[in-house]
Amino acid sequence: MSDLAIEVNELDFAYAALNAPPRPVLSGVTLNLPRGSRCLLVGANGAGKSTLLQILAGKRLTRSNAKVLGSEVFFKTPEGVTYLGTEWAANPVVRSDLEVAHFLDSVGGYRYKERRDRLLDILDVDLSWHMHEVSDGERRRVQIVSGLMAPWDVLLLDEVTVDLDVLVRSKLLAFLVEETQTRGATLLYASHIFDGMDAWPTHLCHIQLGSTAPPSPLAWPLSGAAGEDAAVPPAVRARMDDPQRSGSRLLELAVHWLEEDKRRRIDKEVREGGKERRGANGKVTTDSEAFYRKYDYSH
Question: In terms of residue numbers, what domain contains 206?
Fold first, then answer.
């Protein structure tokens, strides 16, 4: 058995489109994670993080090089892989008049009573809640309980902690560390919340415009190993080590990466279209603006 839980090598992926060329999303993605690791996926919105997680969960058809627990993820998705994404909360079923106790039993909670009860305590969930009456954050807690009740070997998290208050999130992250340390389970977690996370990950993966920036993964905390300066230049490392910094070391690095991503995106847009496509775009006047100005009699 391989000691790698996730094996991705030169992965390419594009979305098919009717009457148009395929739209590339991922290109040359490489990410090999050992069992028991906790890896944070870092990248701008639209960089491809969610697509990568969905591929690893077997939710996207691809014949590229992507294996989880030694199996091709789409054609032979292995047992023990759990994916939790934000789209769950939009499902009308989980917004209906459904009692939490009944919902959890319907997805097998009674089979894992000990783990279920521990998660109910960690996430502070009331079994008598009705799903149509609770807040988005409380509904998200129920999702996490339902997804983590059964023991998992690989957990793929896509922004699902964004709705949690800081206390519940802290307790959940501590539980996930315990799962990796005691059971050798593996975590790949896409998030934009980095403060308070300095001691949490064992690895970082930077997704930049659909590709992984080397080294991938980057071992964390930094050790001074060869290749680290490519991802963390000395000037950035100095800011990370500055006791007067405004946030955590991990936040400083994430901000640097996202600033670099934006510069590269703008350069790409200028090369391909002659101008940056986002923002106010200077003196551009849209057709709709011209129309409404013509018929604006308020002045």
Answer: 1-80+152-224
